[in-house]
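OP here, attaching both records as promised.
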Amino acid sequence: MKKTLTLLSFALLLFACGSKKTETDSSDAPAVAGESAPANQLTEQQKADGWKLLFDGQTMTGWRNYKNKENDSWEVVDGMLHCKKVNDSTENKRADLMTTDPYENYEFAFDWKIAPQGNSGVIYRVTEEFDVPYASGPEYQLIDDIGYPGELKAPNKTGSNYDVHEAKNKTLNPPGEWNSSKIVVNVNHVEHWLNGVKVLEYELGSPDWKKRVAGSKWKDFPGYGLAKTGYIDLQDHGSEAWFRNLYIKVL
């Protein structure tokens, strides 16, 4: 009897483990490039599948500063969009960098890395109605989850929809190493992916979304998450961040 119960317990354990599924990316999204792989390029198949480059690796073509603010924090270096660290000894002119074209429904894939203690993000469906881009668009958070010198709630960590939805089941490479992310925005449906795994999804305007927003720092931002189309915005949060392989596929 004891032996039978042991075998039964083992079988139940195997079943429980097998029932936990993590959704992984089987799409045609460009994969994260290794350090020696060609960056900022699409294969012929990716082009045929509808992917387009948003960054050519050499110029800022296709990008401009939020509200055309004067800016000295962004540069193109070694095939990357680089956000410089705040220099306390000089007056800094900081601004987010955003696409010149607005987008409605799309998949946006990008590689990124941050410096230790760094903080950045990608904000989507951004409008220029307000003084800051995060007043209108939700944010895919990019941050040093372990070393950031401040308190971080679960919805404020990497991959999360900042302060609203927590990213789960994620595998995150540490600061200084590349990560690959993807944002899917299709009508009201939004997905966040990190290193090939879907870490959250939500529906804009749903009762759950409204409840979460009402309990977040966005409760006093009347335009938050309401735009049906908008720009893709790379956040300048005062710390170093790097981006490359920025691709979009319009849905």
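Record two, same layout:
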Amino acid sequence: MLQRNKNPWDSPGKSPGRASARGFTLVELMVTVAVIAVIGAVAVPNMRTIILRNRLKSQTEDVAGTMQLARSEAIRTNARVTACVSSGGITCSTSAQRFVVFNEANEILREVALPADVQVSGPAAGIVFRSSGRIDSSLPAADRVVVVCIPDANLGENQREITVALGGASTSTPKNGGGSCP
């Protein structure tokens, strides 16, 4: 007896002319894509702000750590050490993309290069740590502040001020610069 090829629909529980459903329908796929688009539209602008805020905090910590290195080096070598904003080398300026530490022999001990969107500003003469680790008591309070900033109006607190106390310790405070940098 000849056996005929069996039709897959002849098995029990399956109806003829209907394939078993697998995958997504076009409507389900469109709804999923729409939900992802809405979530992305809400999350992306907030993510940019979070990234900028973290970059600002990280660069501020680098600059503050560099100032602490300057203080430690002044104590260790029993000599004056200068920490300042610099556009290159050991020449101090009021605003640039670099922060340097150098000793009395004009040797650069550390240099922090900031990303293009981060600016740092400070006193034109820099902050000079004496061999005791302290800074000069005649230095006005305004000349003991270094500001790390990202010029972005959407960031809110787009500046961080690092204030150096007369004893040499520093503190960091967030500030709202209205999107501009000093």
